[in-house]
Amino acid sequence: MTTSNIKHSAFTAIRLTSSTFLIKEFDDIYSEHPHIYAIIVPVSNLVTNSASKPGTIILIDTGCGGASNDPKTRITNLREFIETVNVPDNDRRPLNGLDMTGRAKMDYIVVLTHCHYDHIRKLHSVFYSDSPIFASSHCPEFLSNIPEHSLCNFLDIHTPKYTPSVVSHGHIISNLITILHTPGHTPDSLTIYDSTSNPPMLYVGDTLYEYEPIMFPSEGSIVDWFRSIEALIEFVETQERSGSEEEEPLKFKDEKHQQRVLLNAGHVTYLQPALTVLRAVMAFMEDVVSGREPVRRRWVKRGEETVEYRQSQSLAKYSLICPERLIFDVAQSRR
Fold first, then answer.
1. Is the separation of the CB atoms in 208 and 276 below 8 Å?
2. Ordered structural domains, the chain, with CATH
3. Rg for the chain, CA atoms, rounded
4. In the predicted model, is pLDDT for residue 15 greater than 70?
């Protein structure tokens, strides 16, 4: 069995909890730097699993495909990274090392937060046909045209071929993670809640993040986004309330992590207090649609008038780029 050095890879990985890793594609040619999350689930926690396997890795998204700006990068395949690269935060071992026959020790389950190219590229070639792939059932027609709605056509890049199993709102995968439909960024956007993690984790994809513009394509809806954020706030409040009633409050070394549920996004943001972030980003978006935040820039993208907003504070966390039409839609919906 051959392992590789992380410095020759398009990816890095850090440990977030005892069972969860953040894999980051840190120098991709699209400048997306997407987050990929790997949740390692031991066989004892699974409803069904091959007796010969020690567990399963749940992967949240699969990134841009590994194309790096650095010509010296040798490992551009996500699966190769997971199975052969020694990760310092994993005792300098691969996240899913190979057995004596050369096969990965654990199986995979892939959950896609949405179908944009920077979350699905190379999906077809990286994971075997027996790895289940889950996506939102909220808008099947949106998923019926992946080349267009992934933005692969717009960028003139190859579209991965895959057939996801679409799941309903509230669906629980392997008795572990809960799928929440959160349309807005795209019609197929979903959020993943892992109640088994310590602390519990909320994975929101591109619904929001900090320090980079929150992006809405022409197929997005800020009307739906507000509904989704309101639902997530209510969901997290319920989870934290029920958790505090059932068990002692979790204690963290860092006081900023005192809240029970932590939020992880598809870019930039991870391990942040979920309620704090959700409430703050909603306040920013309310400032935008109410006119309190001025338009900072406008241009035409994909044939539509596009606008940019950003907080004016010196350390502003939130900004937005979207078709201006989506702002008008919110005003219309509130009349």
1. no
2. 6-198 (3.60.15)
3. 20
4. yes
